Amino acid sequence: MIDEKIQRYAERFSTPESDVLRELRLKTFGERQDKNMLSGFYQGRLLSMISRMIGPAIVLEIGTYVGYSAICLAEGLRDGGKVITLDVNEETNAIAQEYWRKAGIYERIDARLGDALEVIDDIDETIDLVFIDADKENYSNYFDLTFPKLRKGGLIIADNVLWSGDVVNAEQGENVKASTKALHEYNEKIDADPRVSNILLAVRDGLMIARKERE
């Protein structure tokens, strides 16, 4: 949604990704048909920056894919911190674990396979940062499940909330796919929640950032 020349310029003047992240990104784009699921360089640098800014002890990621975003989020962990990352795909999880080892952060990743709607209930730690990048129809459910576990001042970041601009069609009442409708409803939900402050960033496919202000 941003002019390609401007995007390249912005990326040029951003801190580069690590060699391991670059290898994983190129491997994903070169070998996988589902490569659009990858956070990518620019969004990855943003996630890393946000994590570094708040210095989380516990990050919860819902949707691991090949582990790229988990590495980015782990870059800001405080000493002794960890990323808990949830997914259902054993094949991509194996790739993720290979690259976590290469990045030297394997011991800081708590990867759990299973239905996130069930696994989240088993998390007892207080969470500092949540990154949601999974099945779109359950975004609102993921928010509701994680919010009570999130510390005051903590962040919930949801990816793909612009959905290639299709959410505008949903807002205008057009007939849209279930995923588009769910994302628009998520954006409405967050914007109407008095417990959070929020901003929808028009970065890549859209990031909704909600900060917990009160219970």
Question: What can you tell me about this protein's structure?
Answer:
The chain is built from nine helices and seven strands. The chain is of the alpha/beta class and 215 residues long. The chain has a single domain (4-154), classed as 3-Layer(aba) Sandwich (Rossmann fold). It has a seven-stranded mixed beta sheet with strand order 3-2-1-4-5-7-6, sandwiched between helices. Helix 4 links the parallel strand 1 (58-62) and strand 2 (82-87). Helix 3 (41-54) packs parallel to helix 4. The relative contact order is 0.13.
Report the oligomer.
Answer: single chain
Structural class, from helix and strand content? alpha/beta
CATH topology: Rossmann fold
Portion of residues in beta strands equals 15-25%
Write the layout of secondary structure elements.
Layout: H1 4-12, H2 19-31, H3 41-54, E1 58-62, H4 68-74, E2 82-87, H5 90-103, E3 109-113, H6 116-119, E4 127-132, H7 139-146, E5 150-159, H8 166-171, H9 178-192, E6 196-201, E7 207-212
Parallel strand pairs: 1-2, 1-4, 2-3, 4-5
Antiparallel strand pairs: 5-7, 6-7
Helix pairs in contact: 3-4
Task: Give a short summary of the structure.
The protein has 215 residues and is an alpha/beta fold. It is 42% helix and 20% strand. The model has no long low-confidence stretch (mean pLDDT 97).
Question: What labels would you give this structure?
Answer:
single chain; 7 strands; globular; Rossmann fold; 7-stranded mixed beta sheet; 215 residues; alpha/beta; 9 helices; 42% helix
